[in-house]
Amino acid sequence: MVQIFERGTLYWSATTGAYPVNFSGGIGARYAAGGYERTYGFPVFAETAITGGAMQKFRTISGGYTAFYWTPAHHRTHTVWENGAIGGGVTQIFRTSTGAETVYTWSPSAGTHTLNGRGAIYAHWRNTGFTSVYGYPVSDEVHVGNGVYEVKFSLGKSIAWSSSSGVLVK
Q1: How far is CA 15 from the centre of its chain?
Q2: Chain centroid to CA 127
Q3: Exposed, middle or buried by CB within 10 Å (0-12, 13-18, 19+), for 92?
Q4: pLDDT in tens, 29-65
Q5: DSSP code for 136
Q6: Which of 10, 122, 134, 143 could join 153 via S-S bond, C-beta 3.0 to 4.6 A?
Q7: 159: left (phi over 0), alpha (psi -120 to 50) or beta
Q8: Per-residue b/e over 46-78, b at no fewer than 16 CB within 10 Å?
Q9: Which residues of the chain have pLDDT under 50?
Q10: Where in the chain are the domains?
């Protein structure tokens, strides 16, 4: 069910409840352009601020999930199908016109976190099998001091990097 109000639109279903979709933003625009609830289903929660942008998740009639991620740095909305034939998305890479890359990761238990897509920490995580060795990131890639950057992972390990020491697994 859809209810249009003067300052917004609410979607309701028995499985997801009632949540708004902001059609004046990038996520709502992508939702509309792709076919609304017929394609993506109903919102699971309202558009939510995340590090570097916003996201909103939708549940399809078949029970799958679609997540939309929007970032002002890229002025684009990205779609992640979470229940496809090959499973849920582990990462989504965003590139700027300057060539910088930010990798967004998401998991149900850890939420959304960011890594430098051209950095040594992400390269090490990718080259060792993403989640198979370290699990999902549970922190963003952050500067922890003295030129050291670090990401903590769900299987209890951390990957750190500095220009003087290279990659270090803790």
Answers
A1: 23
A2: 20
A3: middle
A4: 989 988 899 888 999 999 988 767 788 999 888 887 8
A5: S
A6: 134
A7: beta
A8: ebeebebbbbbbbbbeeeebbbbbbbeebeebb
A9: 84-87
A10: 1-87, 90-170
